[in-house]
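A quick word before the example. In earlier lectures we treated sequence and structure as two separate objects. From today on, think of them as two lines of the same record. Here is Tol-pal system protein YbgF written that way.
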Amino acid sequence: MKYMTLCLLAVFSLLAVGCTATRQTAATTEASTEWRIKNLEENFLNFREEQRKQADQSVAAAEALDRRLAGIESDLAVLRGGEVVVAAPGDEPRSEGWVSDESGPDDLKPEEGGWVSSDSGTPGPAAESGEEKPWAEVPGAPVTIPEPTVISRSPVPAPAKAAPAPAKVSAMGAQATYDAGLAKYNGGDFEGARGAFDEFLKKYSSDGLTPNALYWKGETYYSQKDYAQAILTFKEVTSRYPKHAKSASALLKIGMSYDRVGDPDNAVFYLRALVEDFPKSAPATLARKELTRLGG
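And the structure line, produced from the sequence above:
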């Protein structure tokens, strides 16, 4: 009987160890799968964002080419506005209209008496007027102008720069750090705002303003049109704080971000989730308008 008891205990121990190993393996597999899904989603979003940027660059290049062609056509229209007149051999040149400035090989040739027309004979004496000709006199030796005397001055020493004041070590609390990040965001300093919110999330991860700080971090990405990172940050808000009021705003911005990267299906999915989970919220009102526009 004692032997049977020991055998049963050994069997139960093996089963317990097996169950524990199975649970650990399942947990590891689940974590690995979640990480792979998140990594694939991030790569996909970055790919869509790169596609959008390339499309914007193509549009800008096409617009620049159109402007250049329009300028060339405008210049051609101006040139065609006047009559181009090319004098025939033996004809007198006409003064009106546009005259070609290109001379043929026989139009002008060098002679001893200066440049004369090719069909003229021996040049006669030039008629002279009775006016004075000061340019006909050969000037004498050039007048030497003495160089000005340079008075050397001793260099004036530059004013000594004041030593920079030592940086003050800021000892801001949670509310002050959050307010500083929000102020930088409202001022358009999105990089600085994101740095402040990252500092807040690192130092005060258990504070009541953590969902708000995480949401506004996503807004910094959205304002910079980095929609892939915005989606990932807003999804962190909804996954960590699904019942918080900021999750409604985050769902709205997730849908709008998907729309910006050209993924209307996901945009409709998250906007519908917002309307279903937070039907009376202000973001849900905006979501209904977006769904109407997207046909969802």
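Notice the following. The CA atoms of residues 31 and 225 lie 30 Å apart. We will return to this example when we discuss secondary structure assignment.
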